[in-house]
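Entry details:
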Amino acid sequence: MSDKLNPVAEVGATLSRAGGLIESALAEGTYVFECFDAEGNLKWREEVKNTVMTVGKNLALDTFLAGSAYTVTGPFMGLISSTSFSAISAADTQSSHAGWLEAGSANAPHYSGTRKTAAWNAASAGSKALSASLAFSITTSGTIKGAFMTYGTGAVNTIDDTNGTLLSAGLFTGGDRSVVNGDTVNVSYSLAM
């Protein structure tokens, strides 16, 4: 009896690759709210994601990709009142947002001055943030739902003005927030792509 060996070598390889590179630029913003009482004590703090409105995305894209010597008007930040609130929508515009009202003039709570003007740090790592939080000095009691940003042609810092382009709106996730005369609500914002 004799044993025979027949050595056989086999090699197989498979190469798979995706059909293309997929890159996405989703606009995501975050508002951070801090409320301090008249003595400077922190009453509450909340960080909320926002809805970036379709008109705000469209203006940003037109500016990024087809703008020529473009100068930004604003952005201006305002507060959203709980008065007659039902919802925010990506379809909202500065002139038509049936689900919410701006706080500050006709709707409580009121605050001193005008809408706050945003100043920005340089963009970094695909994000742009305010260089400092914006302070709303509350002058009457009331309840706020969140904040919004408006900018572009026609935008002004006047409370309840309907001109400009609504960039975004953010609502508290932990429920409405009450404020009283003497409180200060500081709001910061960042937008990432």
